[in-house]
């Protein structure tokens, strides 16, 4: 079973930092990845964000644990504040591109995001700071799904 950690970090315009992989389907994702042996969630999140974006982060808040549906494993979702660094612009072997997206842009470009990542971004939007962490399967947040269906009617 795999364990991943992904971190929502936002700029001063509340846009979400995302990275596009240079391999596989080459879709957009939150910064993050596999937790290394013996590594705690916070350290894994800090390491992954720095490796993929060059940002240093702090004030890490645990949002939840999500059971993957298509493969065995879980992903942990956190949010954090950028405290130093600038978004790396050059591509490398893992990351082809880095960019900040508004939630509207993410919604409009859903097909360019990994489905699990799209769901994680939306879970972060419904989580209230200081609330109990979320523990569920990685599905689209039901409270947002009802809103989307209502808007389409």
Structure summarized in a few sentences:
Helix content is 27%, strand content 35%.
How would you sum up this structure, described in words?
This protein has four helices and eight strands; from the N terminus they run E-E-E-E-H-E-E-E-H-H-E-H. By secondary structure, it is of the alpha/beta class. The strands form two sheets. The chain has a five-stranded mixed beta sheet with strand order 4-1-6-5-8, with helices on both faces. A three-stranded antiparallel beta sheet has the order 3-2-7. Strand 2 (16-21) and strand 3 (28-29) form a beta hairpin. The radius of gyration is 15 Å and the shape is globular. The model is unreliable at 149-153 (pLDDT under 50).
* Overall pLDDT level: 90
The count of DSSP E runs of length 2 or more, i.e. the number of strands, is 8
Which overall shape is indicated by the principal axes computed on the Cα atoms?
globular
Radius of gyration: 15 Å
Widest sheet: strand order?
A: 4-1-6-5-8
Quaternary state of this entry equals single chain
Helix/strand-derived class? alpha/beta
Fraction of helical residues: 25-40%
Report the sheet with the most strands, covering strand number, pairing sense and barrel closure: 5 strands, mixed
- The helix/strand order is EEEEHEEEHHEH
Distance between the termini: 40 Å
Output the number of helix runs.
4
List keywords for this structure.
five-stranded mixed β-sheet, alpha/beta, 4 helices, 8 strands, three-stranded antiparallel β-sheet, 153 residues, 27% helix, globular
Write the layout of secondary structure elements.
Layout: E1 2-9, E2 16-21, E3 28-29, E4 32-34, H1 41-53, E5 56-67, E6 73-84, E7 95-101, H2 103-108, H3 115-126, E8 134-137, H4 142-152
Parallel strand pairs: 1-6, 5-8
Antiparallel strand pairs: 1-4, 2-3, 2-7, 5-6
């Amino acid at each position: 079973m795999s364990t991943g950690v992904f971190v929502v970090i936002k700029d001063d315009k509340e846009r979400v930092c995302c990275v596009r992989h240079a391999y596989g389907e080459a879709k957009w994702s939150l910064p993050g990845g596999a937790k290394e042996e013996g590594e705690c969630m916070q350290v894994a999140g800090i390491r992954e964000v720095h490796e993929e974006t060059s940002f240093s982060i702090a004030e890490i808040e645990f949002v939840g644990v999500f059971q993957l549906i298509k493969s065995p494993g879980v992903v942990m979702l956190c949010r954090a504040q950028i405290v130093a660094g600038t978004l790396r612009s050059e591509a490398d072997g893992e990351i082809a591109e880095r960019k900040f997206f508004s939630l509207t842009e993410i919604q409009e470009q859903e097909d360019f995001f990994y489905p699990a990542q799209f769901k994680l971004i939306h879970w972060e939007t419904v989580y209230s700071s200081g609330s109990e962490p979320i523990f569920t399967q990685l599905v689209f947040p039901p409270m947002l799904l009802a809103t989307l269906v209502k808007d389409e009617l």
